[in-house]
Amino acid sequence: MNFWLLDRFKKYNTKPALAGFWGQFTYADLVQLVYKIESEFKTLVGSTPTTIGLVGDCCPASVAWLIASERLQHWIAPMMDHAQETAEKLNQIHAQWVVVTEGSTWKIYPRASTGTLQVQSSQLLPAQHAGLVLFSSGTSGNAKVMLQDLSVLLNTYEVRHENSLTLLSLLGFDHIGGINTLLGGLAAGSQIVIPESRAPEQVINTIKKHQVAILPATPTFLNLLLIAATHRLADLASLRLITYGTEPMPEGLLARLRQILPAVRLIQTFGTSETGILKTESPDADSNFLRINDPNVEWKIVEDELWLRSLTQIRGYLNASNEKFTTDGWFMTGDKVELGPNNTIRILGRTGEMINVGGEKLMPTEVESIILSVPGVIDCRVFGEKNALVGQTVAVDVVAAVGQNWETLRGLIRQTCRHTLTAYKVPTRLNLVSAISTNRLKKQRTN
Hints:
By secondary structure, the chain is of the alpha/beta class.
């Protein structure tokens, strides 16, 4: 059980903690919600640890339930409210209770569990530790259920220093990146703003209304901001820092952001659901290399793949093989990386995304970065396409600017790629599309 967090909330007292469509809550308000939950739930279950499905978005009640569950040493599984998917997840973890939150209120429902989680002895949590259950995206099959030691994870935020910067939370409450934004911000006494929707215009309006200083986002979302509202980004005077992660940052996109937001610092972050979010630093504002600078993390590169071993590593998958973990505790991330100067690394992409053209291999991000630098290109996605002669060839979906002639743009893209890339990397097919599917993000890393 962690006592330091509520003590810190009491110190912050009337400082604003959370703001959203439900209003504004102070740190003192959060403390009262936590105490109310503890009293109410103890009456229902006593002191016996149980498994709770927490259904709802990142609102004051959800935050308070996460904290109270750790203090009461329960296992808690945050999940968004998607009816069929939620029911399946509740069955997977054999949840004994379901808590549905909205704003500062909640409803508790007992649930007839049809069994118990099959937990290996190596996955058991230490005495008086709470569990955080997270789900993978499940794009390559059934979602994997991951068990995190919530007490250990929470303790890593105790070193955060107080600040009063307002930050925006975009990632979901059921995502390790969203939880990292939440716990890091609360430990520092920041105000965390939850937009009513993640539409670019809504996010920009929220930044202006609440004078947001820190924006954690994905490169894809930042590109959406540029597409939807480039003319409005320069007016975001309060914005001081953008942290980006979950996927490689194309050099062309980074250059455009630097041009439009010259006063805003851009810092790359990195983490995985399995190991938690790492402390990193960017050696240069214009570089997409990063340096891992985290005393709780070890890293190494094995055959171009990044391996991690961290204090905040999950205890394991509860419903799948743990073969991605070595016997001595290393997690094979599946991220292909390049070693740079001064012990820096660059994330090139997922090893499963690699394109093999007649034995010559390339990562999509290298080609995407070149194409995004072509005037008239708004967005693109490079992927491998089957070919009977060479196994795969390079194909690309392109989103063109409004009014841009496609034949002219296609010729310019081909010319740029031929002058810049080795022959096997040059796309053999270019498709004009209205938008890039966001499904490509589901298996990528967290920020």
